[in-house]
Amino acid sequence: MSALFNFQSLLLVILLTICTCTYVRAVAPRLIDRNKEGFLGLFWMSARIERLSPYVALACIAMAITILVQ
């Protein structure tokens, strides 16, 4: 099933995008920071969401538990 139609998969894709963009920005900041507008600006915004890291961390832990329980 596509991630667009399954809420749990959609949430997983969003969390993985946030974590991946934050990691890429830490390793190669120029790669993320040069695209602040347009469609690729979504990745720049995703890297900025990591500032709310306690909430992202709790969401990642909750998602891991739900996947392990299934």
TrEMBL record:
<protein>
    <recommendedName>
        <fullName>Protein kish</fullName>
    </recommendedName>
</protein>
<dbReference type="Pfam" id="PF06842">
    <property type="entry name" value="DUF1242"/>
</dbReference>
<feature type="signal peptide">
    <location>
        <begin position="1"/>
        <end position="26"/>
    </location>
</feature>
<dbReference type="InterPro" id="IPR009653">
    <property type="entry name" value="Ksh1"/>
</dbReference>
<keyword id="KW-0812">Transmembrane</keyword>
<keyword id="KW-0333">Golgi apparatus</keyword>
<dbReference type="InterPro" id="IPR051523">
    <property type="entry name" value="KISH_domain"/>
</dbReference>
<keyword id="KW-0732">Signal</keyword>
<comment type="similarity">
    <text>Belongs to the KISH family.</text>
</comment>
<feature type="transmembrane region" description="Helical">
    <location>
        <begin position="52"/>
        <end position="69"/>
    </location>
</feature>
<keyword id="KW-1133">Transmembrane helix</keyword>
<comment type="function">
    <text>Involved in the early part of the secretory pathway.</text>
</comment>
<keyword id="KW-0472">Membrane</keyword>
